[in-house]
From TrEMBL:
EC number assigned by the record: 5.4.99.25
Descriptive protein name: tRNA pseudouridine synthase B
Pfam family, one: TruB_C_2
Reactions performed catalytically: uridine(55) in tRNA = pseudouridine(55) in tRNA
Boundaries of every tRNA pseudouridylate synthase B C-terminal domain copy: 179-219
InterPro entries found in the cross-reference section: PsdUridine_synth_cat_dom_sf (IPR020103), PsdUridine_synth_N (IPR002501), PUA-like_sf (IPR015947), PUA_sf (IPR036974), tRNA_psdUridine_synth_fam2_C (IPR015225), tRNA_psdUridine_synth_TruB (IPR014780), TruB_C (IPR032819)
Presence of the UniProt keyword Isomerase in the record: yes
Organism: Pilimelia columellifera subsp. columellifera
Length: 295
């Protein structure tokens, strides 16, 4: 029987993150399944799936930094800022130099204000932005702060035509849209741009090397489908603290512990190694945010 924990999936192209969750519910034989950060249908790579009580860890997974490999096409803009949308503008990008591309990407690195793609899952007055656009509304979402920690150019590919393809790797904060980086680079260079390929290579402490394809997971016994049991998963990406028997009883009733001087949130483990809670320190106490062994 499947217990609580994380499954690191290598998402295939053509599926939504919700499609993957639905598939994992069947494979894990439980309805209590969630994911830790949406990937567009076109995108592939790391999708963190939580099963059972581990779904309560997803709040902390979603906020982790992400890493991607991507291909940006200069010379065409699309309605979705990626290859799935209709081309809305075209310009000859063959005259754009490598130095201009490097400078354009440098300007999109660090702490920046980024306007999400209009065709995104962000809600505007209770309605998803992509639905408003599909219903014919012209929509411009307000910029928001994000951090692009690293943006490396691997290759600039030039053919005989007017488009230029730029292969990059990106490490960024949660909430960053790689599609928007492609759009903004194209806009800065005056030729338009969109994303033609995207592969997520890491979510926080969970790299692509840990991931399994859906076909590989389908071959596993449901009792052995977890990549990491819940306690092992928490140890991977949260600071840790050990509780004694009395502290374990206190946490099981939702009570606070004495502060340990740790930056939170952090995981607290019982004498038997079980994950007891995730806590944060404030007002001189370690107060539980999530309790896993409630009395």
């Amino acid at each position: 029987m499947t217990t609580d924990g994380l499954i690191i999936v290598d998402k295939p192209g053509g599926m939504t993150s919700h499609d993957v969750v639905a598939r994992m519910r069947r494979l894990a034989r439980t309805r209590r399944v969630g994911h830790g950060g949406t990937l567009d249908p076109m995108a592939t790579g790391v999708l963190v799936i939580a099963v059972g009580r581990a779904t309560r860890l997803l709040t902390y997974v979603i906020g982790a930094r992400k890493s991607y490999d991507a291909t940006i096409r200069l010379g065409q803009g699309t309605v979705t800022d990626d290859a799935e949308g209709e081309v809305t503008s075209a310009a000859d990008a063959s005259g754009v130099s490598d130095a201009q591309i490097t400078a354009g990407l440098a300007a999109l690195t660090g702490d920046i204000q980024q306007a999400p793609s209009a065709v995104s899952a962000i809600k505007v007055n209770g309605v998803r932005a992509y639905k408003r656009v599909r219903d014919g509304e012209e929509l411009a979402l307000a910029p928001r702060p994000v951090t692009v920690h690293e943006l490396i150019t691997h290759d600039v590919q030039r053919g005989a035509g007017p488009v230029v393809d730029v292969r990059v790797s990106v490490t960024c904060s949660a909430g960053t849209y790689i599609r928007a980086i492609a759009r903004d680079l194209g806009a800065a260079l005056g030729v338009g741009g969109h994303l033609t390929a995207l592969r997520r290579t890491a979510v926080g402490a969970f790299p692509l090397a840990d991931a399994a394809t859906l076909d590989q997971l389908a071959e596993r016994d449901p009792a052995e489908i977890l990549t990491l049991p819940m306690a092992d998963a928490a140890r991977r990406f949260l600071p840790q603290r050990q509780a004694d028997d009395q502290e374990t009883r206190t946490l099981s009733h939702g009570g606070p512990l004495a502060a340990a001087g740790l930056d939170g949130p952090y995981a607290v483990f019982g004498p038997d190694g079980a994950l007891l809670a995730v806590v944060s320190e404030r007002d001189g106490r370690a107060r539980p945010e999530v309790v896993f062994n409630a009395a």
